[in-house]
Each structure stands twice: as structure tokens, then as C-alpha cells.
Design brief:
Length: 289
């Protein structure tokens, strides 16, 4: 365990400490920051981790409330981070941390643009307090299999683009899924969005493992939202009003268009759906729940 317990704000001092840490070898290659001033000096933009100088495998800080832009980007040796007091993760903060496997941010409410993009060793993430996920936040996290965001209300564009190992997602509070949010998540088989009202353009395009989905609160489905979801055979839309379908291609190249596929809606709305704009294309596949 390596502890930085000195109040540091000078770049030269930080560089010297980093060089010293790099020369230390032990089985618990950890950097711990017990004072907020230390970590803030590093993440405020005055200085950032240089993978060629400082290469800890684990970073712990109990006081830091924000990780600034690019603070740990491309730290290829970093495997674990814990910031229990952090509420905001800025853009590119951990982008390209290809060895990062474990993250602990129980208080984080905001994850910004490309914060974890291309963290190809992440397998599972849970952010219990996060309400907003920025664009491309987890894009290219090819080992990510499951995510849990119980408080998240908004998912940004391309947030999980090409998370090819992602099998399940749980967003019980999410109301808006951004454009291309889950595009090309080819292993995605289970989704939970009970509060979602808006599904963005291309949101689940090329999610070839999806077979059945339910959006009980949905009011708007964007262009090509489920295009090329080749295994998708049924969608349940339980809201007591007809959802807006932005294009007739939303379910193109899915099993919904086949004789075995179906779009399930409240019985009182079956006829309304069949005659609504763009839904007419699927009129012979619309049935009561």
C-alpha cells in the first residue's frame, strides 16, 4: 500500500512522487490518497497521471468529489479504482484504461462524455446513484456483460455503442434512451426499462440477440430503433395511448415482420394502432396483450 499523505499542489513535487512510486515494486501496487487536496491537485487539470511515469494498479480516495477531464485516460496498468465520495466523472476520465476491471462510485450522479470508453476489461458496472450517462460513456467496453443503474433517468447517445458482450441492462428509472445508445450490442438479450417514454433513433439497432422486449411507458420510438434486430419477435407496449412511431423502418429486418412476430398493445388500442401513422405498415402484426 502506497500512501500520499502530504499536502501537494506543486507539479514538480507531484512528478517526483510519481517517479518514486514507479520505482517501488510490491505485490499490492496501490496508491491511496487520504487527503482531498492531494487528489484534487492531480485531477484539476494541472497534472494528470502519465502511464509512462506512474502506473499503479489500484487507486483509492475517500474524499474526492469530482474526477476531472482525462485525469486517468490511457492508464493501461490501472485495474481498480474506488472513489466513494465522487459525484461527477468528467469526459475521458478513464478512457482507454484497458486493464480496468473494478470501479466503485456509490455516490456518483453524473458520468460524462467518453468517461470509460474503450475500457475493454470492464465486465460489470453498478452505479446506484447515477442519474445521467453521457454520450459514448461506455462505448467500446467489449468485455462488459451487465450494467445496473437503478437511478439513471437519461442515457446519452452511443453510451453503450459496441459493448458486444453486454447481455443484460437494468434501468428502472430511465425515461429517455439516446440515439444509438445500445447500437451493435450483439449479445444483448435482456432489457428492463419500465419507465422509459422515449427510445432514440437507432437505439437498439443490430442488437441481434434480443427476442422479446417490453416498454410499458413508451410514447415515442425513433427512426430505425430496432432495425436489424434479427431475433426480435415481439414487443409489448402497454401504455394507454398510441406511441409515436417515427418511421416504418423501426422494426425492419426483425421477426416482428414475419408471420410469427407480433406487436402487443392494449386491447382498446388495437384498431388505433393499426391505422396510426407508420404503424399501418405493421397492421397485420398488431394484437392485444
Amino acid at each position: 500500500m502506497i500512501v500520499l499523505a502530504t499536502y501537494l499542489t506543486n507539479t514538480d513535487e507531484l512528478t517526483q512522487i510519481a517517479s518514486a512510486i514507479r520505482r517501488i515494486t510490491n505485490t499490492n501496487n496501490t496508491v491511496k490518497f487520504p487527503y482531498v487536496d492531494t487528489i484534487n491537485a492531480i485531477v484539476a487539470g494541472n497534472w494528470k497521471y502519465d502511464a509512462n511515469v506512474l502506473s499503479p494498479s489500484q487507486i483509492i480516495d475517500t474524499d474526492c468529489t469530482a474526477i476531472k477531464s482525462s485525469a486517468f485516460s490511457s492508464c493501461s496498468s490501472l485495474k481498480s479504482v474506488s472513489f466513494p465520495a465522487c459525484t461527477t466523472i468528467e469526459s475521458y476520465a478513464f478512457s482507454g484504461c484497458t486493464s480496468l476491471k473494478s470501479v466503485n462510485f456509490p455516490a456518483c450522479t453524473t458520468i460524462k462524455y467518453q468517461a470509460f470508453t474503450n475500457c475493454s476489461s470492464l465486465t460489470s458496472v453498478s452505479f446506484p446513484a447515477c442519474t445521467t450517462i453521457g454520450g459514448y460513456a461506455f462505448s467500446g467496453c467489449t468485455s462488459l456483460t451487465s450494467v445496473s443503474f437503478p437511478a439513471c433517468t437519461t442515457i446519452g447517445v452511443n453510451a453503450f455503442f459496441y459493448c458486444s458482450s453486454l447481455t443484460s441492462v437494468n434501468f428502472p428509472a430511465c425515461t429517455a434512451i439516446g440515439d444509438r445508445a445500445f447500437i451493435n450490442c450483439s449479445s444483448l438479450a435482456s432489457v428492463n426499462f419500465p419507465a422509459c417514454t422515449t427510445i432514440g433513433d437507432h437505439a437498439f439497432r443490430l442488437c441481434t440477440s434480443l427476442t422479446s422486449i417490453s416498454f410499458p411507458a413508451c410514447t415515442t420510438i425513433g427512426d430505425y430503433a430496432f432495425h436489424f434486430c434479427k431475433s426480435l419477435s415481439v414487443i409489448y407496449l402497454a401504455k394507454k395511448s398510441v406511441a409515436t412511431l417515427s418511421t416504418s423502418f423501426a422494426f425492419a429486418i426483425t421477426k416482428i415482420t414475419s408471420t410469427t412476430g407480433s406487436i402487443r398493445v392494449p386491447s382498446s388500442l388495437v384498431n388505433s394502432y393499426k391505422t396510426a401513422t407508420n404503424w399501418t405498415y405493421y397492421s397485420n402484426r398488431i394484437f392485444a396483450i
